[in-house]
Amino acid sequence: MLCAPTSSLYSDFRTFQTLRPWIMPNMVMNILSRLRTMPVRGVLTVIGGFLIHSTISTGYIFGNMTPYLTSYLRARSGSTDATYSETVWISTANYLTLALCMPILGWVEQKLTPRICTLIGGLIFSSGMVLTYFTMQHSLLLTALTYGIINGAGKSMAYPGAVKCALKWFPKRSGLVTGIIICGIGFGTFVFNQVVTAFINPDNFSPDETIEDDLYFTQSSLLDRVPYCFLLLGGVYTAIQILAVLFLIATPTDTPTQEDKTEKGPEQEKTPGEKMKEDLDTASSTDSGTTDDDDDDDGNYTPRQVLRSKLFYLLWVIYGCVVLGIFFVMNFYKTFSQTFIKDDHFLALAGSVGSAFNALGRPFWGAVGDKIGYRETLTIVIAVFGTAGATFTLCEYGGKAMLMIWLCLIYGTFSGFYALMPSLTVSLYGQKYYSVNYGLLFTSMIVVQLSGALLTSQLKSAIGWQGILYIGAGGIMFSFCLCCGMLVQYRLAMRKEKKFGNKHVEKSIDTRL
Known about the structure:
The chain is mainly alpha-helical and 513 residues long. The chain has a single domain, classed as MFS general substrate transporter like domains (Growth Hormone, Chain: A), CATH 1.20.1250.20. Helix content is 79%, strand content 1%. The chain contains 19 helices and 2 strands. The protein has a two-stranded antiparallel sheet. Helix 5 (84-111) crosses helix 19, helix 6 runs antiparallel to helix 9 (220-247) and helix 11 packs across helix 17.
């Protein structure tokens, strides 16, 4: 009697196996088959990197935090005349420290493991948040030390280590993996923007003091909660970072993962990232000043060789111009929006929803870059971002609906820029010196942050928030022109190569982006 049900179940199972291609789309089946071949420890490493980046999103919540912080400094500290043009130096100090420390600490990572560097960086980062509870009660300068410099130093150690661990597990999916990890920044911004506003301003107060067209909070119950918010954030960040570091598992670069064995055979076509890497490995010495024998094993280029490449400086300028636009939107979207929208909870929500698009956009654009090429994807991302940035001031006439849509569009596109640049660096220059090489590219932030802070403090009173935002949009459009020129140069070089053959075309990494 037991045989009949067993036979029936077996028959049903065989029937399901036969009909499964019709029941489940091929795309879903392919995804499930890929998931089964992924290494568990590699997936945990990606999750750990995601969690680390979700805590280092301070730069993105600064735009939501700055009205509360500036109002508190004016009312409760020795910096009674602090303005938004001055408190922007806190964000500037944060990114200046990040840009200065990243290439230096990249050398430290060569001596320590990425896991240890990530743990140390995370703890330094969180300690800066906790110490701000004390410093903000004294002066703007001390606040810039803890919330800016200490915070930025910790971020510079934690940021690249988590990405590097994951890329060793999934070298064939560098764009997608990088996008997933750093989308944690967007996720963290979405969550902690709401946490900050709900904790500090649960009553949805609007700024009630106007000084030279700038709005500030003076409500005592709101100001009382501002310092304690930094204690809350510091404690939560520390707990998440300790958990995340437990997930980070490095694998030797010479140990093939399951994905490497099953993803592609020798006959299959290379991805755009692999093609770029191959072009870099075969580049002539006329551009970089080195030969194939000078580079490290497996095509890893040392920082000295990277600095000899003309392509690096072009990428450096593009990076800086795009980040200038991000600087103004990220720091002043709420300050500008408060001039025509009197709803603090909505402004925090708009920033959080935009941050959700920031999170989702990173793996999306990373996957697109893996599919169609980083140069094409980078050009598309910068074009859309520049258009949205140039028209952002029109939100003053479009109201809440337009502001929400434009923030989603802006955050959803510049997220792609941050997802593509690390993958592009690895594709061009290898993984071994990734932290140092990407840190060198990141030094453009020094010029950007100084320029952004100086322009804000010197020109804001003359040109207003609209003029400041237009300057940022101009920087983005300039970088778009550079990307277009780079793309045209690449296409022309490829056309010559196809027409005349490799031996008649000069191999230059400047045309291989």
